[in-house]
Amino acid sequence: MKRSNLNLLICLDMLLKERSVTRAAERLEMSQPGMSNALARLRELIGDPLLVRSGNGFVLTERALSLELKVRSGIKLMEEIFANEGPLDLLEAKGTVTLAAADSNSMAFVPALADILSEVAPDVSLHVRAPDPEHIHEWLSEGACDIALGHFPDLQPDLRRIPLFQQPLSCISARRQTPNGTLTQAEYFERRHVVFGSPFSPRSTLEQTLTGELAAAGFERSRTIFVSTGLVIPYIVAGSSHIATLPTWVCRHVAGFLPLTVSPVPIKVSPIETDMVWHERTHRQALHVWLRDILRTIIPGAAATGMDIRLEY
């Protein structure tokens, strides 16, 4: 391989097509001695004459005939590698994009994104998976996912990110368990909590951030129910004496159809920063650039809940 180059592959392709040094040289706008020299080098590298005289012309050897399809495939692949991607035609675009997003962010963005894709890029498939902060760099750099949405406070510096919105937190409790319609600080820490983050689910950065802030203030919740999907948390709270701390918009949304009370968290906690994250691997790929731009224009929550969750403070 060190003795070969791409020009030799192009010469071989033309020699196999034309079966003539003269015609191959003309097609590539080379001198005949230059093409003869290329043929000599190819014969040495491949260990076969490739073109042999027969009557007034040349014919391909059996070895050359066996190489025709491989060489053409190699040239086509090379053209694809070095060609400019060109303008994106969404109606003709094909492929799969994998999005890592927790349940709440999937609810906020995927309904609108699904509608847009089906209308303007019908042959593009979207795979949605739960994010794992421990592996998000590996996933993005190696192709296990292409875009991640969520709270990622410990990202490696080589990942690209842009902020999308902040998610303030509130508390939900069963309506029958909260007669005053709110929770005091004492009640908040006395009651048992349902949280996302069982041993069978990815680490929850929301839970980690909240727990760290409370610990810094000298508080600790009694977390006794650990689940592997956030979607079941409101139902557990509605049917038990447990409470939960979730993004405010989620609390207000589920309280619209479950017997729940939404209360402020009775101690100051920071909103959860929600970012879009991707790797240099896909930074300039046209389809991914378009998809990231679309995600930035989506009003989070509007398609599924009818509200702009950025306003739910």
Protein described:
The protein is α/β, with parallel strands linked by helices. It folds into three domains: 6-82, Arc Repressor Mutant, subunit A, CATH 1.10.10.10; 95-163 and 279-311, D-Maltodextrin-Binding Protein, domain 2 (3-Layer(aba) Sandwich), CATH 3.40.190.10; 169-270, Periplasmic binding protein-like II (D-Maltodextrin-Binding Protein, domain 2), CATH 3.40.190. The protein has helices spanning 6-18, 21-27, 32-46, 62-82, 103-120, 136-142, 185-190, 205-216, 233-238, 248-254, 286-297, 302-305; strands at residues 51-54, 57-60, 95-101, 124-129, 147-150, 160-167, 169-174, 192-196, 222-227, 243-247, 260-264, 272-278. The strands form four sheets. Strands 4-3-5-12-6 form a five-stranded mixed beta sheet. α8 (205-216) links the parallel β8 (192-196) and β9. The radius of gyration is 30 Å and the shape is elongated. The model has no long low-confidence stretch (mean pLDDT 90).
